[in-house]
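Predict fold of Beta-phosphoglucomutase; 216 aa.
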Amino acid sequence: VLGAVLFDLDGVITDTAELHYQAWKDLADELGIPFDREHNEKLKGVDRMTSLKLILQNGDRTYSPEEMEKLAHSKNERYKELLTTLTPEALLPGVRKLLKALRRDGIRTALASASRNAPTVLDRLGVTDLFDYVADAGAVALQKPDAEIFLNAAAGVGVHPLRCIGIEDAEAGVISIHRAGMPAVGIGTTETLPDADHHVDSPADLTPALLREWMN
Ligand code: B16
Ligand code: MG
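Predicted 3D structure, encoded as tokens:
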């Protein structure tokens, strides 16, 4: 029986990847490090400090932990500036409808995002009150593909992991869902997300009935 649906944020609820890209690109340009959209794909679902390390790898010098903290901070300030441009129009198609339908059916909803800015993003999109719980990415010790964030989200809504289903657009997130013992719905294809149990092009293709069916 389906008790809760656990959502990833970027690529599932909205496409913040483009804003992350612009913020990282500004930083990489300042440092004279090559960085493009293709490289940005590798940062999806990856936490802030790990993303920074992946970018700095393409530079020709090393950075102290203090310098890296500063760089991560400066990227985040830029990202937060860009977040002020976000409006409910940036919600991916079908998301609000799905969240409302789940609520009507008494199915709990939680967010399992690696982003520490997730609460701000939900506010800007106007969907904060449609989530029963938002996992705190800052309190998670082990990032995706570890199970921790999805287990934390399940605990937050008080539903046993075996009664939860996860929705992801990144392979690391799909693995994370599986490690938490849940079926994984991939927003993508069998090529981009080979491990997902079910694939859809967009959240608009999802209904409570379909998600219930996939629990069995
Ligand atoms: P922040 P998700 C992830 O969100 C993004 O995909 C990833 O690109 C980003 O670096 C990460 O959040 C951390 O974000 O810097 O805001 O804490 O896909 O897990 O919702
Ligand atoms: Mg994602």
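The two ends are 8 Å apart (CA to CA).
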